[in-house]
Amino acid sequence: MGEQNKFHLGSEAEAATQKSIRALVAHSRKAGKSEPIYLIINTVKPMVRKKDYTPRIIPVTNKIGRLQDKSVLLVTKDPSTPYRHALTEKDSATEDVFNQIYTLTKLKSLAKDPKKLSLMFKEYDLVVSDNRIHKFLPDILGAQFFLKNKKIPFMVQMARPSPESQAQLTKSKSSTKLKDNRCEPKYVYSQMKAIARNTYFIPSAKGTCVSIVIGHTEMETPAIVTNLNDVIGYLVDSKNLPVGGLLRTIENIVSVHVKTSESVSMEIKKEKGIEEKN
């Protein structure tokens, strides 16, 4: 096996991974269900020092989802007109991507009503926001969206950063501040496609356990195993810093399990004595 295809957890763990995932897939299919398969990683120490509400995309070989299957809410800066027009006009790359577009002001208003917020939580598969306002969402949306990391909003950039972008800043009638109202649908679409097809994680500043979707039970076992290996490699390879590479080495992993939401957790790797070394 070539170095780039090397199973990061070792050959014994690879065999255990294949066996465990086959069992999860078989059980789910027998029950007539499609379930996500989670990779549970226990680490020596927390991955980051500060609380992080930003989902970090992990590229995987085999796609986990499709953008066309997702209902998507986009939250933009005020006003939304420059973005709404560009993103939804006919023949735009994002013409059919967003089911709803809210401004930050509208989201604040809606969030005052717990019932409306609850309906919004259930209605959309993905919530994404302009990266410039993403930092305000935890306080606005509250615990429901951030509980167990199930609906944490992703960030998108409305336009590709470039040296020429400074020259395209504009002033509004009510403010003397220069604003970047550029919107590039093709660039937004590429980000949305990456969010939908890949997986993600949110590093915890307190805990030493992270749960990451690596596939679903309708996928073939080899594809899920490959995705698992992609995830481990992304987390331990320091070349992926600062977004990935947070573990830096396999030795910072205490144990690894796989499971579905309804199955028992199946251990595929345990580092003996790692607690004593640290």
From TrEMBL:
Transmembrane segments: none
InterPro entries in the record: Ribosomal_uL1-like, Ribosomal_uL1/biogenesis, Ribosomal_uL1_3-a/b-sand
A Pfam family hit: Ribosomal_L1
SUPFAM superfamilies: Ribosomal protein L1 (SSF56808)
Protein's name in the database: Ribosome biogenesis protein UTP30
Annotated source species: Meyerozyma guilliermondii (strain ATCC 6260 / CBS 566 / DSM 6381 / JCM 1539 / NBRC 10279 / NRRL Y-324)
